[in-house]
Amino acid sequence: MKKITLVGLAATVLSSTLVSAAPAPKDTQFVPVPTYRSGPYSAASTAMFGGYMDYMAMLNARDAGINGVRLSWEICDTEYKTDRGIECYEKLKNKGDKGATSFSLLQTSLTYALLDKVAKDKIPLISMGSGRSDATDGEVFPYVFPLVANYWRQNVAKIEFIAQQEGGVDKLKGKKIVNLYHNSAYGKETQKILDAQAEKYGFEVEHFSINPSTGTEQQGIWLHIRRIKADWVLLRGYGAMNPTALKEARRSGFPVNRIIGSAWTGSEEDVIPAGKAAKGFIAPSFNAGGADFRVITDIRQRIYADGKGNVKEANIGSVYYNRGIVLGILNAEAIRTAQGKFGNQPLSGEQMRWGYENLNITDDSLRALGAEGLMTAVKTSCKNHEGNGKIHFQQWDGEKWTIISDWMDPDSSLVQPLIEASAAEYAHKNNITPRDCSKE
Predict the structure, then answer these.
(1) CATH 3.40.50.2300 fits 13-149+289-389+419-435, yes or no
(2) Residues 6+ apart with CB under 8 A from 141
(3) I want to staple 252 with a disulfide (CB 3.0 to 4.6 A). Which of 139, 206, 222, 288 is the partner?
(4) What's the confidence (pLDDT) of residue 12?
(5) Does this model's pTM top 0.90?
């Protein structure tokens, strides 16, 4: 097994074989890092969790942690496999003085698999910008937090963006939109909201799945997309599926600037392998790329100047790397918020739930954190575990991502009723009595 020294207090990386690691140092806030550094999707996870760990390391180096409580962490490689992810969860959930702070996941199938476990174990599950959208409802899902912008809200923003390009919402009527999705829990998550939007606005939507194991075989589907004269394609892919789609779109003659990705297709890792075929591709994001942020300057000075860090320095500022910093900010500010109620000490998962439910990251907070422009303000509650974050759109110009829209606040009028209905259905099927947030 390969061991990698991490910046901070954790030391052992769990690779493809789950093994024991040294106990987390006492008097630290223990943070599991269930990433996937192997497998077909490792590039995305390595970049994002690299930014996440760099942010925690910077806090340790610059501030001695959070209010004097240092952070410790341990990596476990899930390999993007649900069974491995469950093993990682069971291995790490009781580490540290008070157990795991939270589990931050970039794996929708694993989020689904851990819903009952985290509720029983009272450990927050953070599925920033991912996971299942109805978990926004904190009355039914008290320990799950799809922070910033859930999948359904992101999809509302995409249709609103398309409407802007077409000249108004009324121009959506009669349009043909193809939803080309990764055949997984992640890929399937937006079908419900898309169908509801199609009914509301009068456009036609066709759903086509791509098998993850054959994601590089797409020629036939793109010829079909061209043949039916689709107006737009929503590319909900992951890994090699994304650059393959862009290449096949170009070969078939479908205009790349009529393809809208998801927040998990809009990274350097998705477009650079496609070469010239990616130029013009558009994707939503809930964070900005680039390295011109004071928080990144602090990371460079405190971590990389000493020859440490979790990514190649040239990759600092990528969309996924910066998203990891956003995750670090959300988790660190939840810890800081919970400390305000429970004291400056290592906190339990149950105490941390209160911190996540009372997040209030304002514009002033972001300026103080050196993250102004990197993300938008986030405010959560017992009932709202998302925070109603904003979305902007970026376009690949062949060399870099360029922001092409203002931050958009997607319309909640369609999303919120779906969230409440879906959460209520989940509660009924699983014999869950929702808590009453009005009493908390």
Answers:
(1) yes
(2) 115, 119, 134, 135, 385, 423, 426
(3) 222
(4) 32
(5) yes
